[in-house]
Amino acid sequence: MTATDRILKVVEPIVYGQRVVALLVLLALTVFFGWKASQTQVDAGFDKSIPLEHPYMKTLKQYQGDFGGGNTVLVALIQENGDIYNGEFLGALKQVTDEVFFLPGVDRSRVSSLFTPDVRFTEVVEGGFAGGNVIPAEYAPTEEMFNLVRQNVGKAGIIGRYVTNDQSGAMVFAELLETDPVTGEKLDYREVAKNLEQIRQQFETENINIHIVGFAKVIGDVTDAAAEVVFFFALALLMTAVLLWVYTASFKLSMVVLVCSLVAVIWEFGLLTVAGFGLDPFAILIPFLVLSVSTSHGVQYVNAWVGEVDKGAEPFEASLETFRRLAIPGTTALITDVAGFATIYLIPIDIIREMSINAAFGMLAIIITNKVLAPIWLTYIRIKDIESFREKQLRREHAGDGLWRFLAKITRPVPAMVTLIICALLLGWSLWKYGDLQVGDSQEGVPELRPDSRYNRDSHAIVSNFSIGVDILKVIAEAPPESCIQYEVMEEIDRFSWHMANTDGVNSTISLPQVAKVVNGQFNEGTPKFQVLQRNQFILVQAITPIPTSSGLLNPDCSAMAVLIFTEDHRAETISRIVERVKAFNEQDAQHVNYALATGNVGVMAATNEVVKAQELQVVGYVYLVILVFMWLSFRSVCGVLCVVLPLSLVSSLAYAVMAVMGIGLKVATLPVVALAVGIGVDYGIYIYSTLVDGLGKGRSLEEAFYDTLHKTGKAVIFTGIALGGSVSTWLMSDLQFQADMGVLLVFMFTANMFGAILVMPALARYLVKHETFAHRASE
Length: 780
Known about the structure:
Main location: membrane
Largest sheet: 4 strands, antiparallel
Number of helices: 25
Membrane topology: Multi-pass membrane protein
Protein name: SSD domain-containing protein
CATH superfamily of the largest domain: Multidrug efflux transporter AcrB transmembrane domain
Strand content: 5-15%
Structural class: alpha+beta
Distance between the termini: 16 Å
CATH architecture of the largest domain: Up-down Bundle
Helix content: 55-70%
CATH topology of the largest domain: Multidrug efflux transporter AcrB transmembrane fold
Shape: elongated
Pfam families: MMPL
GO molecular function, one term: transmembrane transporter activity
Radius of gyration: 32 Å
Strand order of the largest sheet: 7-8-6-9
Number of domains: 3
Number of strands: 9
C-alpha cells in the first residue's frame, strides 16, 4: 500500500462517511466566517508600510521628536490670477491653516504656514534687529497689512518654500502621528483623507485652487476606489460564471465551482478578522488570487467528475473516484502554495507580512472548500437527462480531439527541441531586460494612481510652483553636544550641504550653517560679504542663538543637526544617486560628523527600496526552494521536479522583464505579485505532470500519455488560464494604476503559466523523463 493509499484510507471515511454532518459543520463555519468577514475593516497604516527595522527608519524614529517623520501632508493654495496679498486669499489661507491644525491625528506642534508663529522674519534696522511673525497676530485684511506681509515674506527668505516662486500661492505643512493623540487609537487615514477633501471642497473657488498631497491622501484616494474594486471583483465573478457554464454545459456544475470559490474567499476574510487583521488597500490582489486558485482546483475536480459520469458512473462513485485521483495532488499543490506564500513573511515590512498571512489563510480555506465541500456536493448532483449530457460531452471531446492530437506532437523530439530553444531565447531576453527593472518608483507622482489622477495633478502643481517640491530627504548630522558652535563641525556640514545641492536630482538644500551665515551677515549690517561662518566661537554662538529648535534644523543640545535635501522627484534612480552621494561623503570626507540616513518621505522610500532590492531575489528563491521540496516529496523524481519548476521559473523571469518593459517598478505593492502568482503555476504543473506520469505508468508512449493528459486535465488548465486571464483583464480599466499594473502581471502569469504547463513541460519531459522506467513498471 502506497503512502497515498494510506492517506486516502483515513480521509475517505471522514469526507464520504458522514456527508450530512460534514455539510452542516461546513455550513456553520461558513456562517460564522461570513459574520466575521462582514466586520473586516480597511486597515491602512504608515508604520506598517515601511521597514521599521531598517537603519534609516531607526534614525527616523530616534529623531522623530526633534525633526519630524516622513508622514507629512502638504496643502497648497494657488491663485489663478494675481498674487497672494489680498483679503480673499489670505483669509482662505488662515482658515485652511486652522482646519488643518484641528484635523484628527495631526501633530499640532508641526503645523506650519504663513499664519503660524514659527514662520518669522528678521531684519537689520538702525540700532540693531527687528523681527516678528511674517503675518502679525493682529492681522486685518487692509491694504496696509497686505503690503506689510509682502515685505515680511521677502525679508523671511521663504519664497519657494512657504510661498510659490511667483508669489501666487502659499503652503500649509503638517505632520501626522500614527496614533490619534486625542483618542489614543490608531489613526484612521480614511477619515483624515475625507476631512482633507472637505477642506478642499469648502475653500476652493474659481480663483483659488487647493492641491493636497501626502500618505493620508493617497490612502484616501485608493480607498475611495474600493467600490470600483468591488465592481471589478463582481465582474470577474460574472465572467467566470458564464465561462464555467459554457465549459461544463451545466449550470449546476458551474455553481459548484463558483460557490466553493466564494466560500473560500469568505473564509479568508473571516480568518483574517479572527486573527485581528484588516484588509490593507494595497492587498486587494489577495482575494482575487484566492478566487483564482480555487477556481483552478474546482475546474479540475468538476472536469474529472464529468469524465467519470461520461463513463457511466453514478454521482457518488464519480465523486469518490475523482477524489482518489485528485485529492492528494491538489492538496499537495495547495500546501505548497501555503508554504510558498509563508516565505514572503520574511520580508521585514508589516504590510507584506499581512499579505503573506492573508494568502496563506486563503489557501487553507481552499483545501477545505475544494477538497471536502466540493466532493460532498457533487455526490448530490443529479443530471436530469444524463444520456443527453453524455452525448453533449462526447461531442465536445470529439470537437477538441484534433487540437489535443496536434498539441501532443510537442512531445516529439524536433518540436520539443524547437520549444526548448525558444524558451532559452526568452530566458536570455528576460535576463537582459532584468537589468532595466527599477526598484522603487519609476515615474513622477504616485505610481499607485493614474498619471492624470487628481492627486498626481496636485503633486505636479506643487512641484512646478515651489522650489522645495513634495519630496524631502533629511540627513541627520550627528556630533558631540554643543557642536553647532564648533567651527570645524559647522564648516563640514556646510561643505556637505553644498556637495548635496550640486548633486543631480537635488533642487535645493537647507542646513543650520546656511542659516547661520545669513544671521551673521545681519549682525554686520546685512553686508553680503559677512554671510560666512566665523571661526571665532563667540561669534558662532551669536549667529546660532536666534535660530530656534522649531526650525527643524537642530535639537536642543546641538548634538544633531538636520540637513534638508529637496529632491526633484522620487524616482528610484534619483533616490539611489542621492543616497550614494551621502554615503560616499560620509566615508571619504566626514571627519567630525556622522551623516545618518534618513528621515523625510524620501528617506522612507530609500529604506523601502533597499529592503525590496535586498529581499527580492532571496524571497523568490525561498518560494522556489519550498516548491522544490514539495515537488520532490510529491514525485520523488528529479525529472518530475524539473518538469514542474523550470516552466515556473521561466515565467517568473519573464514577469520581471514585462515589468521592466512596462515601467512597473518593483516595490511594496508589486513585490508579492510574482511570488504569489507562482501558486497558480504550481497547480497547473502538478495536475498535468501527475496525470502524465499516471499515463506513462500504464505503458503508454509519451505522446499518447500526454494526449490522454490533455483530455483529462489539460483542457481544464487551458480553460482556467483563459478564463482567469480574461476576467482579470478587466482590471486594466481601473482608475487605480497599481490595480491596472497588477492586472497586466496577473494576465501574463495566468496565461504564461498555462502555456508553460501545456507546451514547455511536455517538451522537457521528452528529454528528462525516462520512459523505459515507466514502461518497465507497467510490464510488472
